[in-house]
């Protein structure tokens, strides 16, 4: 067989054998070294196979070469869709798909939020929100418009849906704790967090993004991820400071002046952020974490628009009034304003000035006790039903339990330092009496609530995440001091039943149920932050 070959280099010596200009076919395909000898390489000779230098090499069938790659560019499709694409952007339709994909009309979602959550946590201004969305489509049936064009407003609607949703009424009527559904792992929540991170990182701060951060922090707090909620509050506070969001000042001459919606919205955003920053410290894991949102001054304005009961026989009316933060508890106010008043008391309780001085701490706690009880009494006198201020009562009772337990601790510290202490001997019985008073309030309200929820589980909708904490801390008091509390066993079981109900609304209640059960199983190994550091 003739082969058309040429030497790979000129013959410098008549003794040097002639070689082919390239490796043979078999050595090339098997990726072996070829000595290019003629007429056959030594490897083919050894294997007794045909050695061919004239062949056309074809790539393996598994190799796919893109024309664009050969031209030195990578096809756009190779990047995939996602946040790594430089052209990636968040559209309002993408955000609203979180609702439409689950057949949730966005207007129904916002109406439910305003009916259930906004009365006691008014982070979104109803009238201003209505003005912004009046010209939009009404949900999945609207072909003209599926929602707002601004992705930040679209995300706000999704967040309003997240904090107002809970298990269906059949599940809510059950007394079993639903441990299988972790709301923090919900795709809608996780998608909302990702969208917020993109909008916050790539666009200028806006009041809608602050509102979204606050509502997501409320969702995280209510479903048991308090550290994540703490971080979300910090993010919201940073944006609020950039936007100079604050409560504004009370000026007597402007008491009857008209209040622009935009001004009231900014004030409500500040107070919502302030309230939530205080309330999450009801969780023991945050009790030593610093408060993040600055406290209001005495002459700062409370929220000026709220539902108000003027006496026990009247139905609530919507009122717009200017009141300073230092207004007396006896002045009729709405649920959100009452929550703001209680949050200011939380500030003093969780950051007392005379730290390290037991006697001074006792005086501080006694003053806070008097102020908190005055607030509770004012709400009782203002309305005839527990439910009208239920979330505010839960906030106040949680604070009272903390104050009385800390009074007992301070009294024990003083007694340990000196066996004869008139201050400690006087405070301890009063603290125990205060615990009895608070537990009676919680037991009465929860007994009534248990009866109501058994027939009307939808009453869970406006429940605050602090309500399960009020029940939990009450159960821990009953467990630690059952020998000092009348009817401790009966009250324990009634309140424990309520905590199971609350687990249908907020996932954190299920976690608190588990904590109580762990404590009952091994009390010696379980610490409780109100009594232990």
TrEMBL record:
GO terms for cellular component: nucleus. The keyword Transit peptide does not apply. Residues 1-22 are annotated as: Disordered. Its main location: nucleus. It comes from the Eukaryota. Keywords: Metal-binding, Nucleus, Transcription, Transcription regulation. This is Zn(2)-C6 fungal-type domain-containing protein. One of its GO terms (biological process) is DNA-templated transcription. PROSITE patterns: ZN2_CY6_FUNGAL_1, ZN2_CY6_FUNGAL_2. One of its GO terms (molecular function) is zinc ion binding. It is found in: Nucleus. Residues 23-53 form the Zn(2)-C6 fungal-type domain. Pfam families: Fungal_trans (PF04082), Zn_clus (PF00172). Residues 1-14 have a biased composition (Low complexity). It comes from Fusarium oxysporum NRRL 32931. Signal peptide: none annotated.
